[in-house]
Write a structure and sequence with these properties.
Layout: H1 4-34, H2 46-59, H3 63-79
Helix pairs in contact: 1-3, 2-3
Length: 95
């Protein structure tokens, strides 16, 4: 059995790493948006995003590529109707 204080320390460490990684994901998504990329929430683009994910996985697992893999995975995860966490602008009637 894990001691409570060890568990709490472990969870704090995990939360810190998740926060750092999420920030890298946000930075990359922002940079891509500024480059003119869009469609992260358009279900019609799911096949392309799946292909992009496969391509990135085949490139290997350096730190930068892992952020791309995570972002593409997040996009696909968000497209799953039962698990959608953030409504797309199209769902809310926006542009």
């Amino acid at each position: 059995m894990i001691k409570t204080e060890d568990f709490d320390l472990e969870m704090d460490a995990i939360a810190a790493v998740v926060g750092l990684f999420a920030e890298k994901m946000r930075q990359k998504m922002r940079a891509k948006h500024l480059e003119g990329w869009s469609g992260w929430d358009e279900p019609d683009l799911q096949p392309r995003i799946e292909g992009d994910l496969s391509e990135h996985i085949s490139k290997g697992f350096d730190r930068e590529n892992l952020v791309d893999i995570a972002n593409l995975s997040m996009i696909l995860w968000n497209m799953l109707p039962a698990e959608r966490s953030a409504p797309s602008p199209q769902q809310e009637g926006g542009e």
